[in-house]
Amino acid sequence: MVDKKFDKDINDIFDDILFSEEKISQQGFEEGYRVGATQENTEAYHLGYHRGAEIGAELGFYYSFINHYIETHQSERAQISDKLSKTISSLKDSIEKFPHNNDENTDLKDSLSNIRVKFKLVCSLLKVNVSFSEGGELTF
Amino acid sequence: MPDIITGEMSGSEFKLEAIQTLNQHTGRVWHVSWHPEGKMFASCGEDRAIRLWSMESKNQWVNKVVLTEGHKRTIRQVTWSPCGNFLASASFDGTTCIWDKKSGQFECNATLEGHENEVKSVSWAPNGKLLATCSRDKSVWIWELVDDEEYDCAAVLNAHSQDVKKVAWHPNSELLASCSYDNTVKLFQDDPREGDWTCQTSLEGHLSTVWSIQFDSTGERLASCSDDLTVKIWKQQEHEWKCAHTIEGFHNRTIYDLSWNSDGYLATACGDDGLRIFKEEACIETGSISYKLVAENRQAHTQDLNSVAWNPIDPQLLVTCSDDGELKVWHFK
């Protein structure tokens, strides 16, 4: 009777021993990768959610600011300078066109910075000092 | 003190001589600007004061006026308007002040607010109706003079990705150049198709912060100086600005400022305490250009040179200012 163990080629057995560390490490990696992918997915979702909410709040602030201005100054349209009304409508347009999902065809960072700059220009022309205080961008 | 350097190269006929040292400022002196008539210049610095210097007698410059009300922090740059009636000052307090003499003495009669933080530079367009400012907030603002008193913001430009160091206008067209910590120089123009100011070109080539830029008096050349120890000369070829020459191997530290005189001599202010003057030389055979160092003073000041400016009328006179708190008037022949 031959022991079942010896069905395996002796070289394979030696290989198993020799590469055991590598094999276990590979198993560990795969397991960890699975767990990580599930967990990080949730985390990434939250990050995206919060960034989206921040941008939304900021754009909403600008949008309501200019809409309020347009409404309250409708009667005195004639007094508003060309430059100002042009900038306001272009700003309004840009905010309305800002995509509501992560559109890969739009450079979100670029559009957002464009909107911020236009809002600054509007504030300067109106001679008011307004800033969106919850804007979360760190500057150095 | 080797104030006179008759050129390191044999046969150099140029002489660079310090004729006066002015040390009324306390702390670093950041910038000097000549009045367009050449009889007066303004300086500013860490002490939050603007000093106006006028010529009393030959080679004698005297501090006649000190403007202290206006800024709460360091004043980084002062610039005279092309008409000579206005003086603009850019400060780290985030504002730009416009001074005029309408009441008999210089007063700050307009303050341009809008930048989020330190304003680094201010420049008047040649027609005197437009003004550009730039800041650490990465933006360049263009202001328009309306009704001789009011300044309205005409555009906010955010083409740079980092701190913008300096703005400079073309001498005879409405073309604005800006340079930045993002290693680029950008050119802006009012685009009639879009009805707005847009970035036309980005000049890339410097390997580190571009500290200063200036067009020469013809407007054909733009010089830029950088932390990468080089000066680049850009020329317009077939409607595109291209780097025509790089001056390298002369500067040992960051080059902070440069200035062209009306004869085409280019002076550089360097962090290695040296003042250098270059002149373009064309090689007829190959059609290429090179720049020759015609005069140099390696110990122009005891610390970094922050700014250099040629007198707009007398092409032999220039002023430098430094971290050592001094201004020096130089004679170049």
Automatic annotation (TrEMBL), chain A:
Superkingdom of origin organism: Eukaryota
Listed InterPro entries: LTO1_adapter (IPR052436)
Protein name per Swiss-Prot or TrEMBL: Uncharacterized protein
UniProtKB/TrEMBL annotation, chain B:
Superkingdom to which the source organism belongs: Eukaryota
SMART domains according to UniProt: WD40
Ranges for the WD repeats: 22-57, 68-109, 112-145, 157-189, 203-235, 298-333
Keyword field: Repeat, WD repeat
Single GO cellular component term: cytosolic [4Fe-4S] assembly targeting complex
InterPro entries, A to Z: CIAO1/Cia1, WD40/YVTN_repeat-like_dom_sf, WD40_PAC1, WD40_repeat_CS, WD40_repeat_dom_sf, WD40_rpt
PROSITE patterns in UniProt: WD_REPEATS_1, WD_REPEATS_2, WD_REPEATS_REGION
GO biological process, one term: iron-sulfur cluster assembly
CDD domains in UniProt: WD40
Task of the protein: Key component of the cytosolic iron-sulfur protein assembly (CIA) complex, a multiprotein complex that mediates the incorporation of iron-sulfur cluster into extramitochondrial Fe/S proteins. As a CIA complex component, interacts specifically with CIAO2A or CIAO2B and MMS19 to assist different branches of iron-sulfur protein assembly, depending of its interactors. The complex CIAO1:CIAO2B:MMS19 binds to and facilitates the assembly of most cytosolic-nuclear Fe/S proteins. CIAO1:CIAO2A specifically matures ACO1 and stabilizes IREB2. Essential component of the cytosolic iron-sulfur (Fe/S) protein assembly machinery. Required for the maturation of extramitochondrial Fe/S proteins.
Record-stated family: Belongs to the WD repeat CIA1 family.
Protein name: Probable cytosolic iron-sulfur protein assembly protein Ciao1
Organism, scientific name: Henosepilachna vigintioctopunctata
Lineage: Eukaryota, Metazoa, Ecdysozoa, Arthropoda, Hexapoda
